[in-house]
Design goal:
With about 190 residues, the chain is an all-alpha fold. It contains nine helices and two strands; from the N terminus they run ββααααααααα. α1 (about 50-65) runs antiparallel to α2 (about 70-85) and α1 (about 50-65) runs parallel beside α5 (about 125-130).
């Protein structure tokens, strides 16, 4: 949309950069929670600690879905919490050449990942894992009540690969056969 100022002869363009989510029909499975910002949403902007922490949380989720070593998953999640709570800006620490391994829960590999995120705006390891995981499976995680453990369980036990598969399984009451999927949880998912 264009807006004109009374004092300028050139038009001023106003751009809305907010991410808009499509509205879902009530009672359909497509009512998912809003998409979390990912590590590549603003690759040219300096990364805040919150953005780095979110990238590490996403990496933990991806690793868990892919069946990675639980200790590695926990390392990313612990690092995310520590990064979130760190009062110093990691982008400044990287710019100054500070040793990131002095931070709690940050070792050589995680230090290298932080540096890549800050300097290049991307996380190649996460992108490689994303290529291995069906986008539909990742999309299921946006449904309230379904995290990486449950999504993996649905995939492994029922072969659910996307929201349509999940909707079909709900309609056929197949989730009842999966341990941990109570009627209350199934109702929550169906909302």
């Amino acid at each position: 949309p264009e807006a004109r100022s009374h004092h300028l002869t050139n038009p001023v363009v106003v751009v809305d950069l907010r991410v808009r989510q499509p509205r879902a029909q009530p009672g359909t499975l497509s009512q998912t929670r809003p998409r979390r910002p990912t590590m590549t949403d603003h690759p040219t902007m300096p990364m805040s600690n919150a953005e780095i922490a979110e990238a590490f949380r996403e990496m933990g989720d991806l690793l868990e879905i892919s069946g990675a070593n639980p200790f590695r998953v926990r390392a990313y999640r612990t690092a995310a919490d520590n990064i979130q709570d760190e009062p110093r800006a990691l982008r400044d620490m990287v710019a100054n050449g500070d040793d990131l391994e002095t931070l709690p829960g940050i070792g050589t590999d995680l230090s290298r990942s932080i540096t890549q995120l800050v300097q290049e705006g991307e996380f190649p390891e996460a992108e490689a894992i994303k290529q291995q995981i069906d986008p539909g499976v990742r999309g299921i995680m946006r449904i309230p009540g379904l995290g990486p453990k449950r999504v993996r369980k649905l995939h492994d036990e029922l072969g659910i690969k996307n929201v349509d598969d999940l909707q079909t399984a709900l309609n056929q009451n197949r989730l009842a056969a999966v341990s941990g999927f109570s009627p209350k949880l199934q109702d929550q998912i169906a909302q």
